[in-house]
Structures are given as structure tokens and as C-alpha cells.
Design brief:
By secondary structure, the protein is mainly beta. Helix content is 10%, strand content 29%. A hairpin with a 5-residue loop joins strand 3 and strand 4.
């Protein structure tokens, strides 16, 4: 699946054994080295069907991977989908965490000259995989 969606990815960062990563982000001392990684593969807790958001909790050393990678592949359990954000906010995963966020993307922004930029505040693409 990684090669199908990201055939040109050369640097792949993940702690997941099935990812066959080239970089283990937990062994990187300087978080800046995770910026511009071609692909980050991470676990997500659950997804929201209403808006395509995925709740991720920091379970790696540096959260820079979540926002600095060019692309993210987020793996979530197949049975971990909720219909709405109202249901998402009632999930127990939101009760106890040091850092977490809802991720959906890519972000985009445009200036007054209408120059549109994708991935302005995070990855340029995000792929969610149901396990």
C-alpha cells in the first residue's frame, strides 16, 4: 500500500514494524531532522466520518513528524470510526493524553494575490488506512 500511494517516497519515518521505515523517529535527537521526510506512518486512535479528521495522540518522541512530513499515512482500527465530532468528543481517548490533535488535511492558504499554497501548516497529503 505504501508503494502504491507513495511510489517516490525515499525517506519513510515510523515506529510501526509493518511500515519498513528508513528512519525510526524515536532515535532522532533533533526534531528538525523529521522536517521534509517524504512519508510519516503513524497510528491514529479513531476517525470522524463527518469531516475526515483523525485523532492522533503523541506516541513518538517528537511530534514534529506529524506536521513536518511531506505526507502522512495514518492507520486506524477499522471499527474506530464515529459519525460526528459530537461523538468524537465523548471518546475516552480524549480524557488522558499529554499531546493530541485532530488531523485532517491538507491545510491550504492563499495570499492577497491569490497564490494558493497546500500543506501550509502540515503535510501536503494525508492517507487514512483502516486496519
Amino acid at each position: 500500500m505504501i508503494r502504491r500511494y507513495y511510489p517516490d517516497a525515499k525517506t519513510i519515518a515510523s515506529v510501526l514494524p509493518e511500515a519498513h521505515a528508513t528512519i525510526n523517529p524515536d532515535t532522532v535527537d533533533d526534531a528538525r531532522k523529521l522536517i521534509d521526510i517524504d512519508l510519516g506512518i503513524i497510528d491514529g486512535c479513531f476517525g470522524v466520518a463527518e469531516n475526515g479528521a483523525v485523532w492522533i495522540r503523541q506516541d513518538i518522541r517528537h511530534k514534529a513528524l506529524y506536521f513536518g512530513a511531506t505526507a502522512l499515512m495514518i492507520l486506524i482500527p477499522r471499527d474506530a470510526l464515529v459519525d460526528t465530532m459530537h461523538e468524537a468528543l465523548a471518546r475516552p481517548e480524549l480524557d488522558d493524553f499529554e499531546y493530541g490533535c485532530f488531523m485532517s488535511g491538507p491545510s491550504k492558504t492563499a495570499d492577497i494575490e491569490q497564490a494558493l499554497v497546500f500543506g501550509a501548516h502540515g503535510p501536503i497529503s494525508i492517507t487514512v488506512v483502516l486496519r
